[in-house]
Amino acid sequence: MSTNYARACYDFAGVVGVVTGGASGIGAEVVDHLRRAGAHVVPWDRAEPTDSDSLQVDVSDLASVERAASEVAKRHGRLDFVVNSAGFAGPTVPVDEYDPEVWRRIVDVNLIGTFNVCRAVVPYLRAAGSGRIVNIASLAGKEGTPNASAYSAAKAGVLALTKSLGKELATTGILVNAIAPAAVRTPILEQMSDIHVQTMIDKSPMRRLGESIEVAELVSWLCSGSCTFNTGAVFDLSGGRATY
After folding, report:
1. N or C: which end of the chain has fewer CB within 10 A?
2. Is 136 helix (H, G, I), strand (E, B) or coil?
3. Which residues contact 154 (CB under 8 A, 6 or more apart)?
4. Is residue 40 within a helix (H) or strand (E), and if so which, with residue range?
5. Has 151 been annotated as catalytic?
6. pLDDT tens digits, one per residue of 222-241
7. Contact call for residues 27 and 50 (beta carbons, < 8 A)
8. CB-CB neighbours of 156 under 10 Å
9. Beta-bridge partners for 43
């Protein structure tokens, strides 16, 4: 990563947001980055809460998500942005060898979980007349990664959901956008084979993995007041790999 250029600075003072999957990986980086910019961020994660602001939430369970959304509104009196980062890749195996239960769980967390969160938070954002939703998808959702059919299908669904919801809310003051990263250096890569990870690196014109901070930088812009005329959009973060 180049450090020769000035980096954007944001002021999120007084802003309240939620980051799902906020206990580790990209989600944790996003939480830290937005907090450093002054935002009051409430991490949602299946893991035990690490601080008084965190909530234990299973995004695949709509009731759990609805309780958490209500709790945020009750505690803080507002909700300004939501970043859907919860997810997992699962094993890399051919379709005909995939355990159907595992396949379904991957879709439940990555796609159904994103839907559950959006469904639960939109009424609060709509009532406020403004808001930002950022969905962390994947380049796999655009390209379809071999031996990762469940993850690819789920993330493709997240991209379509983003486009649909962005259009639905286009006149409400709520902007809905997605990020499609290529492979990023996070613990989720440990779920994949070394060969699978190296293949993704080899496909990158920059010949490297992305870094969580690079995702967090883009999330910050999408959550900020500097983003005003983008909704239903997909932002690639692929080191030059994406071609459409």
Report:
1. C
2. strand
3. 87, 106, 107, 109, 110, 111, 141
4. strand 40-45
5. yes
6. 999 999 999 999 999 988 88
7. no
8. 18
9. 19
Pairwise CA distance, residues 191 & 105, whole Å = 14
* CA geometry: angle 1, 134, 189, nearest 5 deg: 50
What are the structure tokens assigned to 215, written together? 């995702």
Residue pair 62/35 in contact by the 8 Å Cβ criterion: no
The amino acid occupying position 189 is L
Q: In what order do the strands lie in the sheet with 40-45?
A: 55-56, 40-45, 16-20, 81-84, 131-136, 174-181, 233-237
Say if residues 126 and 84 touch (Cβ distance below 8 Å).
no
Candidates 10, 98, 124, 151; catalytic one:
151
CA distance 196 to 2: 27
Complete DSSP assignment for 152-196 = HHHHHHHHHHHHHHHHHTTTTTEEEEEEEE--BSSGGGGGS-HHH
Bridge-based pairing state of the strands 16-20 and 55-56: unpaired
| Cα distance between residue 53 and residue 145, in whole Å | 36
Interval 80-112: pLDDT, tens: 999 999 998 888 899 999 999 999 999 999 999
Whole-model pTM over 0.90: yes
For residue 233, how many other CB atoms are within 10 A of its CB? 16
CB 22 within 8 A of CB 59: no
Residue closest to 204 by CA, chosen among 184, 188, 177: 184
Distance CA 83, CA 21 (A): 9
> Contact 202/137 with Cβ under 8 angstroms?
no
82 near 134, Cβ under 8 Å?
Answer: yes
